[in-house]
Amino acid sequence: MSKKKYLYLIAFLVLAIGILIGMKIQGAISDDKVGEQVKKYAEVLKLVSQYYVDTVDSQKLTEVAINALLQELDPHSVYINPEQLKRVNEDFQGSFEGIGIEFDIINDTLTVISPISGGPSDKLGILAGDKIVKIDGISAIKISREDVPKKLRGKKGTKVTVTIIRAGVSEPLEFTIVRDKIPLYSVDASFIYEDDIGYIKVSRFSATTYTEFSEALSKLRSKGMKKLILDLRGNPGGFLEQAFKMASEFIPAGRKIVYTKGRLEMFNEVYNSSGGKYTNIPLIVLVNEGSASASEIVSGAIQDWDRGLIVGETTFGKGLVQRQFDIFDGSAVRITTSKYYTPSGRLIQKPYEHGKYKTEEENKNLNDTTKPQFKTAGGRIVYGGGGITPDYIVKLDTLTEYTVSLRRLNLIYEFTENYMKSMRKSIETTYKDYNSFRKNFVVTDAMLKDLITFAEGRNVKFNEEQFERDKKYIIMFIKFQIARDIWGNEGAYAVYVSDDEQFLKALELFVTEWDFLNKVK
Fold it and tell me: Is 186 a catalytic residue?
């Protein structure tokens, strides 16, 4: 059979399988044509199996057809084979061993939605938006969703090399990642920053997120928290129920948090707040392009009700709701049945066509003047068009290639580890807690020179211009690693946010926007 005829066969199978899938939603759709098309598909598949020149794998043909169909619909409707389905819940419960990323296949490319905080990829400096184009030297373009875990997960201590294309970086970057156990905690850190400002970093919405979050809130309130910065940057989302519960803590009972709309009325749902203990606390939420799905539900609701301010960068824009339908052979399909909308009516989902997201260039043309406008409960203008646009946009500088190399090769971590062998006892004695360390510890010029020499010994050539540009970040990251070594994530994040422009903007807004933030909502 010629290639062209083979493609026609696949196209036909796609159509037929699509109709077959449609039958899963019985009662919602009733059409005599469905039965006709299923019969037609069965007849063609039987003819191919009987008469095609080579032996055919009917299961494989069917799975190819299903995948092709779903890829045409939208970026998030997917087929899950039986083997993959067995571990489908692992990402949100328990732990696994691998490189530690949340990923998606976007326009046929394996894309990092967010590195899992504290995991191997995060430590090496892999970022949200990075595109993995090779795995161990083999092209990853058009890799199937089910093949990604097979390539990237593995036993703790084993290595995998990925080649990454990063926006703003001219050459591909190569990272050798040592796999590790990836614990799936949700709250990475919570602490009081300066007097009465609480900070909570939530990295995902898993089965235990709300419980962890509630415990963190209670702990901070007992320590005198009167204002809160909720950090959802790099949070790729997860369970809707957990996002609903989190938002309810801040939004008075009865108010809409999110609603879904689909073609079929059975998939239209409204989620109203059940109310919580923190409906009056001044609140600022930090987001970036790695904040997706459940993160956008929380930040969108808080913004629409004027319950707080959003700071950072426009979020990812994942607002499609999937329902999982199990198939008789142990496989399943996740089909998009509706879309998420914020209380003001903004669609969270960013634009896509024929199952693919628009390119970065196309999205750049969607500036604020062309985006649809909506109004918050208090009459402020907010923007639709996909994702949550912050009230205050603060873009972070891109790191230079020199600093990327330091992180890619894990050199700052190794340098700090060596430094701590001789200095740990002195630091623990000098600084009673991480706040004292944060305020008073100084990364000296001698330490920086030692880092430069250490890096040169690992074939990272010193670039003075790039070093000076990133010097503040490098100093922060050395302190971050020292603090993590002694005080864990809590101390590490307390150091990190001290030089974080988005966090510092939030601190500023507690002063300049106090009247707004302190309103009784």
Answer: no
Which residue of the set 151, 201, 318, 521 is catalytic?
318
Q: What's the structural domain count of the chain?
A: 4
Angstrom distances, CA of residue 28 to CA of 162, 264, 335: 45, 7, 14
Quick check: is 508 in a domain? no
**Amino acid (1-letter code) at residue 336:** T
226 labelled catalytic: no
Domain range for 120 is: 95-182
From 156, 182, 208, the end of a domain falls on 182
What pLDDT, on the 0 to 100 scale, is given for residue 36? 84
- Helices 209-222 and 240-248 cross at an angle (nearest 10°) of 20
pLDDT for residue 368: 54
pLDDT class for 185, splitting at 50, 70, 90?
confident
Q: Is 426 found in the same domain as 462? A: yes
- Say if 382 falls within a structural domain: yes
| Angle at CA of residue 42, ends 38 and 47, nearest 5° | 150
Residue of 338, 198, 332, 190 whose CA lies nearest to 264:
338
- The dihedral region occupied by 128, where left means phi > 0, alpha psi between -120 and 50, and beta the remainder, is beta
- Verify that 271 and 374 share a domain, yes or no: yes
**Residues 305 and 453 occupy one common structural domain:** no
Whether residues 411 and 383 share a domain: the answer is: no
Q: Residue 104 carries which DSSP code?
A: E
- Whether 304 sits among the annotated catalytic residues: the reply is yes
Catalytic residue among 304, 306, 470, 500: 304
| pLDDT for position 5 | 47
Q: CA 2 to CA 487: how far, in whole Å? A: 65
Selecting among 190, 206, 293, 299, the annotated active-site residue is 293
